[in-house]
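Hi, here's the filled form for the chain we discussed.

Project: internal
Contact: R.S.
Residues: 256
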Amino acid sequence: MSAFSNVVHGAPGYDKTANTSQKHRLGTKMVYSDGRTFYYSKAAAAITAGQVTMGTQTAADHIKDLAVVSGAAGANQVVITNGGTTAIVGSGKYTEDFATRGDYVDGYLFVNDVDGEGQIFQIADHSTAATGAAVTIDFYNNDTVQTALTTSSEVGLHKPVGHSVEIFDISDIDGSVTGVPTHDIASGEFFWAQTAGPAAVLAIASLVLGNEAYTCGTDGAAGPSLDNNSAEVRIGVVLGVAAASEYALIDLGIKY
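And the returned structure, exactly as it came back:
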């Protein structure tokens, strides 16, 4: 089984490519010589250039507490029971065809409670499973269960970070901040979300040069800290201020 390269060394302009067909693994990192960093993502909705984005949660019945059928210490795979609402579509064994890969390939399985809790594994492949049916989860070659799972163990699934991103909405946070596109993105397109280095970001008027910038009450925009840890996320430091509804220059520090 081979793995796709997870780092691309790019040059200015590469970030402004988008396609309706997948070209890289979701989560692939691209870096420029000036330190700007991008991660390969897929848009769940149209996104305007410079808007802060967030990921979306996995299916509600897959988030946690899925039952384990088997997962012995040293095993390279586990078998779990699918939730009761959402079917899982699998793929051919270790396919490198993006169009036919399973729903959770390159995502994560983590043990959220009881025996083996705290372990996490990246998913190399998995079987198809109807609701309530058994699903086999395969890990990458060198990854194995360290502490045995039992039928009392509970696990959760999550798709790759960046699998389905949308504009950040402080009143309806669906996932972690995932970056800023450098050009307009159509729904369903695969694109590069910038996470580090200078970026033009939609802003509100009260940003201050040299101060930190955070998500705020304006969807997709950056603002100063409101000391509200339940809603705001630090995205970077202000390099150049702008008026309300204009675009400020922010030295992003979302993910390196």
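Let me know if anything looks off before we file it.
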